[in-house]
Amino acid sequence: MKEQNRYVLGESESEHSRLRDQSVVLDPLTRQLHIEAGITAGMSVLDIGTGAGHVAAIAADLVGPHGQVLAVDRNPEALDGARDRLGHRQEIEFAEADLTVLDLDRQFDAIVGRAVLMHVSSPVEVLERLRRHLRPGGLMVMHEFDLTQQWTSVSTPLWDRVRTLILQTFESIGIHNTLGRDLFAAFRSAGLPDPHLTLGAPVGGGAEAPSFGWVNVLAGLLPYLEQQGIVTADEIGIDSLTQRLTDELDAEDATLLGPLMYGAYCTVD
Ligand SMILES: C[S@@+](CC[C@H](N)C(=O)[O-])C[C@H]1O[C@@H](n2cnc3c(N)ncnc32)[C@H](O)[C@@H]1O
């Protein structure tokens, strides 16, 4: 049975460092999306599912000292970590909130989010709820993964195993693996204007193959996989996995594609 609205990637220090590693690759794409969408000086921005606060920090850079960012997450541990990291940023405020019941008594110039809607059981219902928190003329800016494309230019045994493990596990717990490419439909279903779309992804071969990104996702899932008796860290050889995956690609002169990151943004009436 699918577990609705459960975040399985962990709620601890290790999840924080996982998000930090992921952000190194994703932040430039998110920054570009925010700029293209029109996040700019002086705006008030809501960052949903802030995690370690990386997207909030990007928004804060763009809105500057006269703007404000409210960063929400339902996980108090994530918020503590984000406050530790970003507490010195006067323009960012943090608050605990569950998006599925979000009801704030204020409206924002923009709402941003990355890799969050994929974790809620109904992204459309959350978008509808968020819509009520945007002022007329406000911006909705979402950045979500599509994990289901072919990852490697040549199929190899270890890559096939890791891909199947990640996709089947996410699928079985109700994570929306294809939300990136489904964002357009989700915006429409939520009664939002047709969004502009962007697409970006980490890509490379040899020493630049972004193998680490996928291993990072698997590492986040490991506590759940172990608990379910699916695989252990030792069985999968997590410590040497990045190197073995990269070697496998190298032997085939193959290239690797990281998760496709779809951006979707629109201005509401
Ligand atoms: C993959 S992390 C992404 C964090 C951050 N947006 C980033 O890109 O670095 C997803 C975050 O969404 C939060 N989250 C998941 N479901 C949520 C919900 N229903 N309400 C609020 N936060 C939620 C999780 O606690 C987690 O911190």
UniProtKB/TrEMBL annotation:
Pfam family of the protein (one): Methyltransf_31
Xref: Gene3D superfamilies: Vaccinia Virus protein VP39 (3.40.50.150)
CDD domains: AdoMet_MTases
Ranges where the Methyltransferase domain occurs: 40-154
Origin: domain of life: Bacteria
InterPro entries, A to Z: Methyltranfer_dom (IPR025714), SAM-dependent_MTases_sf (IPR029063)
The protein, known as: Methyltransferase domain-containing protein
Organism: Brevibacterium linens
